[in-house]
């Protein structure tokens, strides 16, 4: 049975990297006595796959990890057990059974967009400059890899935006097919103001991640179903 877990990452734990988050969940599965499936072979490991990694220092209320289990309690029971063994900065929000159990259904491969709330740490957002930025036909940024630098147009990857009292809301293309990070967007905002990138002027908070289904943006947890005690009883009877 494939399970999708939605969780938060807040507080001081925003400073731990993706590999540490993986190790945290491996230990959490053991502490909570989750009947997780292990791979076969000489060095078995828990079958676990995360969606798009979060940047170090960023916070989120919409992170995802997929696991495979041999057996499971109902969603409400599993959320309670996991949260009892977890810390306040990482809390489980949803626990659902994935309906499509093919490989392409895992969170890493199906994520296509993400919502972010961008908080301005040092000054109020310049609404006129933001409007000018998003009205451009192209927004060119410099992307660096381990081997080269390249100029990329991120304007097609900005799917939606709105300036709200709590900060700038953006929906960005995210995933293996196309990926835009919020810090690249804010680098373009700074460039339009004639400034070098202001690395500590913004805080990025991920709100949700989505898959594209029938031309609709669907939160990843909605691709699964909540496990109820009645469903588990029927499964045992079968």
Helix-strand layout with pairing:
Elements: E1 2-9, H1 18-31, E2 48-50, E3 59-68, H2 75-85, E4 92-98, H3 107-110, E5 113-120, H4 127-135, E6 140-144, E7 149-153, E8 158-164, E9 167-173, H5 182-192, E10 202-213, E11 216-219, E12 224-226, H6 229-237
Parallel strand pairs: 3-10
Antiparallel strand pairs: 1-3, 1-4, 2-3, 4-12, 5-9, 5-10, 6-7, 8-9, 10-11
Key attributes of the depicted protein:
single chain; 238 residues; alpha+beta; ten-stranded mixed sheet; two-stranded antiparallel sheet; 6 helices; 33% strand
How would you describe this structure to a colleague?
Strands 1, 2, 3, 4, 5, 8, 9, 10, 11 and 12 form a ten-stranded mixed beta sheet that branches. Strands 6-7 form a two-stranded antiparallel ribbon. 24% of the residues lie in helices and 33% in strands. The protein is α+β, with helices and mostly antiparallel strands and 238 residues long. It has six helices and twelve strands. The mean pLDDT is 91. Strand 6 (140-144) and strand 7 form a beta hairpin. The chain is elongated, with a radius of gyration of 20 Å.
Task: Please count the beta strands (DSSP E, at least 2 residues each).
Answer: 12
Q: Note the beta-strand portion.
A: 25-35%
Mean pLDDT: 91
Q: Count of helical segments?
A: 6
Low-confidence stretches: none
Beginning-to-end CA distance, first to last residue: 15 Å
Structural class: alpha+beta
Q: Percent helix among the residues?
A: 10-25%
Main sheet overview = 10 strands, mixed
Estimated radius of gyration:
20 Å
Helix and strand succession? EHEEHEHEHEEEEHEEEH
- Quick one: overall form? elongated
